[in-house]
Amino acid sequence: MKRNAVLAGLAAFALILSGCSPSAEDSTDSSAAAERIVSLSPTATETLYEIGAGNQVVAVDSNSNVPTDAPRRDFSGFKPNPEAVLAENPDLVIASDDTNGLGEALDAVGVKLLLLPAATSFEDAYQQVEKIGEATGHRKESQQVVEEMRTGISKAVQEVPEKIRNSGLSYFHEADPSLYSAGGGTFIGQAYGLLGLKSIAGDSADYPQLSNEAVIAANPDFIFLADHGSAGGVTPEAVSARPGWNEIDAVKSNRIEPLDPDLASRWGPRLPELIRSIATVLKAYQPAHA
């Protein structure tokens, strides 16, 4: 479950990334492309398969559940076992962080490590897709994926009436049952921001823990749950039953919306799905006075 304060460039999400010459876009250096890839990042795994590099993947971490037929191993992306990774005989390892001596172990045997940390902006996410394309010999395909991401996001945003996007609606993003949330400058906060939503946790790029009283006092119009199902088990019914929460507009109006926890925590090719899921909620919004 691929993240904050860089908002510049999001207004251009419908444009295609540029800067490469036509000859560069139409060709890749296949001789330098990785042939045995280990992915320790669910976002990278999704990207690899989306750009057509799936047949070069020999192993992925235990949290890489998309696609379902990826060669999953008992690897931890958070605390990788360098010996287990090297046992797959990779020529490229993609990870979001260099922990547990991974980089040192790979460097000792000449295996390339591509570090792609949690994206801090949509532009960062697009650039990571293209970096994976460069490393795998799928540059053109990665650029096409980025174009599709931009177009899909733009379409989802434009389908929400401008009146709703400009009405200053607020939300509480529940990251876990202890009421950690997301500021508007986080990656997920920027996703909400594209649709005009304001975080009750403020505009920072932090993930603050809010008190029960603070959420009630902020009175959000929407509550989005990234901690339901296997991610925490929180249900809309449980939220409604919390002491005092029956006074919150989102609760009174049944606007408690579970989010796919994978979509909410990754920053790869399925970003348009995340935006569409939020947009669908907004399109159904009816003001209390209507």
UniProtKB/TrEMBL annotation:
One of its GO terms (biological process) is cellular response to iron ion. The keyword Signal applies. The keyword Signal applies. SUPFAM superfamilies: Helical backbone' metal receptor. Residues 1-24 form the signal peptide. It comes from the Bacteria. Residues 36-289 form the Fe/B12 periplasmic-binding domain. PROSITE patterns: FE_B12_PBP, PROKAR_LIPOPROTEIN. It holds the Pfam family Peripla_BP_2. InterPro entries: ABC_Transporter_SBP (IPR050902), ABC_transptr_periplasmic_BD (IPR002491). Keywords: Signal. Belongs to the bacterial solute-binding protein 8 family. This is Cobalamin ABC transporter. It comes from Corynebacterium lactis RW2-5.
